[in-house]
Amino acid sequence: MPGISRRTNNVEKDSRSSPQGGLGDTPRRCHSSWIDPRYAGRCNEGGARNRCSRTRRGHHPPSGRSHPGLQFLRQRPFPAEGLTAQSRFQGRFCSAVRGSQSQGLRNMTAKLTFHPLGNADCTRIDFSDGKKMLVDYADMRNDNNPYDKRIDLPVELKADLRAANRDNYDVVCFTHLDDDHCCGTGDFFWLDHAAKYQGEGRIKIKELWVPAAAILEDGCDDSARIVRQEARHRLRQGYGIRVFSRPKKLADWLAKQGLSLESRAHLITDAGQYVPGFSKFGPERAEFFIHSPFGWRQNENGIIDRNQDSIVFQATFLEGGRETYALFMSDIHADSIDQIVLTTKRHGHEDRLLWDIFKVPHHCSYTAIGWTKGEDETQPTEHVEWLCETQGRDRHIMVSTSKPMPLKGTLEDADVQPPHRQAGNYYKAVARRADGSFKVTMESPTAAHPKPMSIEVTSRGAQLLTVSAVAGAASIIATPARAG
Fold first, then answer.
1. Compositionally biased, Basic residues: which spans (predicted)?
2. Regarding beta strands 472-478 and 461-468, do their DSSP bridges make them parallel or antiparallel, or are they unpaired?
3. Which end of the chain has the least Cβ crowding within 10 Å, N or C?
């Protein structure tokens, strides 16, 4: 939990007897505002004279430098009886950490973390109640290439889970089955449908989210087939699965399994509905509104289009009475965006397309904006323009999960694959007019040293947390909150 927590004035009582005196049954005031919550939970009170484990590793500043705990010691010293200066500081520090832990989940806020994976996706959502969710998982790094700057995704995610003392995610959402959204699934996750995907060190999934296309698609291979088989297994068994949209083909597939659509209706969510199990008034303080896929579209087309039949949703986070909106646009194109806007307007749900955080569709491809790339800037369709320029709130954050933006005239600029410079220029212009920001995962904080990029949801809106390219996760700088 980045930043310094708010000052609290909780009085706690340590009922344990202290062989050193002065710490036993003495009530003491815990000013956890001076303690960085990143240290919480890392206090090894069981040994080495209650010394903090971070102290033993040398993470505290040497004496003489400013440190929250040292300020506390100078301002409110312990009684001197039976305590050395070192143990006074350590005891007070551990007490403050315990106070911070007692605040615990109540002081947590939601955070979205985007990982530098090239033209690929994996976003981690940490909810205010401690729940964790992944939106896509694509392990794209080539370990045999020493120049590959993409993150080692399994190492990064497992380190985060260990810090939270977990071996599972509450939700893993695969927006569609393209390799850049599900690569490496069979190596990372514990999957119930086959014993070969089970064993020590694998990460479990409490609830799997997939579009109906992931159940129905034939001819899948590699990671796409693995996700499909797991989704089919869970839907057959009737647990741990949420399927988005109910095209006629889904009813036909269920019938072949000896099941009815009605028997699995509680596991299916359609476009225009909220996802059960989440509420902005619940402990997670978040809800999900589904915009895509459309069941009728799959019925009309007859064939599956992974990008256009992918999951698109708005996540709403409530913090301090303020709602912050995030739009996850998957890999849909402009015509699908047009259809989402028209349908949303027809039902009077324009607020379901508000956004403070915008996950740019299809790795910053011009096809998600308009029909032609353009010379320097892609011109949007009428409805894309409305979504980007009207629904985006002031001081918003746009995130392109992509390679660095190409420079004009380069080989990368001539590549038919995204990111497209012209699309990037359009998004940059939108952000500039709203006093917002446009970020690229493989450029943040620098193209030479990309790091995971986190956005914290606060009572003032979405706040971008910048990680130093040199110091890595140990140095986090909070930019001003996006208070649209």
1. 51-62
2. antiparallel
3. N
